[in-house]
Specification:
Keywords: Disulfide bond, Oxidoreductase, Redox-active center, Signal. The chain has nine helices and five strands. It is of the alpha+beta class.
Amino acid sequence: MLISAGVALAAVTLGLVSWQATAPADKDAGSAGSAPAAAPRSDTSAALRALARREPGDKLALGRADAPVVLIEYSDFKCGYCGKFARDTEPELVKKYVDNGTLRIEWRNFPIFGAESEAAAKAAWAAGQQDRFAAFHAAAYADGSKEKGFAEPRLLELAREAGVPDLERFKADLAGEQAAAALKKDQEEGYRIGVTSTPSFLVNGRPIAGAQPLGAFTAAIAQAEAAAQQ
């Protein structure tokens, strides 16, 4: 209950700083998006930090469960800025911080562009059940991919591209109750803390809204790592 109360306070903080990084009309994906948030007050920050799941078997996470810094990403596969982050920034973060054990990245499906967004989110989860989430993520966010849409034939094409070994299982998982429940869990978490646009991030509880330049993330990660060592 204490965590729930803290998260309620966090909703005000993240809701205020989560600027409109995307809109249904989808802005130019080459733009920078919104600005990093000021560090939230300590009680709110603690509640936001507690959202890191750190589950060793999380199929939608990269990096060690005990990494000192956790970046949580709330994202949508039809979001232009999310694609920009996935192509331009995330690979650099993986190379610099995930590979050396400093950073863990936890994905939260947060579809805001309707039925195809939700279908893509469930498909990503289904690919993850066969350990192909990262490959599906890369294929779905490839330059020009979202313009092809995410109808079922396209999702199967992406699954093949990602190397999902059992496509019949993929289709069953995509349509199953577990995928829907996993999506609902991520959405409810995001709405509870005030996420209103994608991509939105938490770096050890500190909000960052929008596909910021790499330097915004490296600075936040450095700060979070230093604080974790105190």
